[in-house]
Amino acid sequence: MNKHVLSDTAVLTGRSLRHITRSLDTIITTCIMPIGFMLLFVYVFGGAIQTGSHSYVNYLLPGILIITIASGISYTAYRLFLDMQSGIFDRFQSMPIARSSVLWAHVLTSLVANLTSLVVVVLVALLMGFRSGAGVLAWLEIAGILILFTLALTWLAVIPGLTAKSVDGASAFSYPLIFLPFISSAFVPTATMPGPVRAFAENQPVTSIVNAIRDLFAQQPVGTDIWIALAWCVGILIVAYIFAMVIYRRKISQ
Amino acid sequence: MTSQHVIHVQGLEKSYKKLEVLRGVDFDVARGSIFALLGSNGAGKTTVVRILSTLLKADAGTASVNGFDVATQAARVRESISLTGQFAAVDEILSGRENLVLVARLRHLKGAGTIADDLLARFSLTDAAARKVSAYSGGMRRRLDIAMSLSGNPPVILLDEPTTGLDPQARIEVWQAVKELAEHGTTVLLTTQNLGEAERLADRIAILHDGRIIVNGTLADLKQLLPPAKVEYVEKQPTLEDVFLAIVGDHGKDGGAGNDRAPAPTGEEQR
User: Fold this and answer.
1) Percentage, residues of chain B above pLDDT 90
2) CB spacing of B55 vs A252 below 8 angstroms
3) Beta-bridge partners for B31
4) What are phi and psi of B249, to 5 degrees?
5) Which domains are seen in chain B, by residue range?
6) In this structure, are strands B34-38 and B187-192 parallel, antiparallel, or unpaired?
7) Among B190, B192, B210, B212, which is least packed by CB within 10 angstroms?
8) What are the pLDDT digits (tens) for B67-93?
């Protein structure tokens, strides 16, 4: 059975990647909100925000990348939900394939789709004046953090994808994730926030991830932020993966 | 494997929470035959099909397909069967051909492209092969669904209400396809709530009611359960279906001229 895991996953990933290349609107709508926020904050609010950094777009981009992933994974849940609803999930499960490949194909597709969206957003940021002197290694570290964060949120998205009763339910879970960066260091420094809000902002995952990426872009020492960021990503990944797998097993062997 | 019964179901029980759906279901299906499981909505037909296709575990009882136990040898069962569920489980975004290639590759068959092309021809879908399935009619979708099930020639096909929601012409096309399957030696288990469908297609008919099989036999057996036929002279009016089919003829089929399936010359007579 296991000898087919890789080939089955490859075939099924090819299938869902075709869904993305044939409905590029999912990439576009994923990018529209983060790009909209970026335009709004750089050209409208940004002038009034004191970040201590000479370019606000440089300050803002890491948080925008987080929002991009949060809005992208709602499509992961949506695609999985549609497969569950349409009966094609049952068809695959009744075939002589490695059963876990059905889920892995969605996860890999989510990774590819989100990375594509991230590249689009970074290109728009470059047009808006984003500049970084970061070297190859720093870029790789940033990519690593973003991939890990995407994987963590993707496994989180698998849960509503498997359990949702409606399309709205499948994608609505991502809204709180999209707004989490607003109560973090993504848009403004946390120092200006009142006590309890500041405490929340400084101890939620987005702040450490954003700070780590921002320091890497700015060629600053990243300090402990990167370890806290990695701990959050790995922690969310493991917990979400376990829950998703438990639900998945229950679905395929009732 | 060599036993005469390809599907063997004994004492099958299944409850969803407190709702007892199956309360001891027994039946056997002979190799190469068409077996119809008849029942009203909610009778448990789909539950039986889901258990046989390893998507659901029974609470009690045993079921085997092609000699393999559905609970302990699920992987072998999946190699032996193909499931066509109640809703055409096709990928809407892919083309018809891509759907067939996908399934052939998932069955680890060599020459997936050739297999896809053969099936497209067999189900009169060659002209629509490159079109996205979302543009297919209900009948074409169903045909594609069944064609996908035949990839790799599994010995057992499970069809869950294959004609629900189809127009009369599409229904006849599906019936034709099912008959051809059995002629090629495939064992077919189909569920239906359409009595005419069971009457037309099935070698044996079982009626599932209140979680049990209450009758199981050939059409002739079932007819003997009622008082003998008496002769009455009745003016036979054409049914609306006869009128519809006579007027529409074959022209409306999928809007594509020349992709009509040639009826199998001997198919009608053998049943």
Assistant:
1) 18
2) yes
3) none
4) 60, -145
5) 5-270 (3.40.50.300)
6) parallel
7) B210
8) 899 888 888 899 899 988 777 789 989
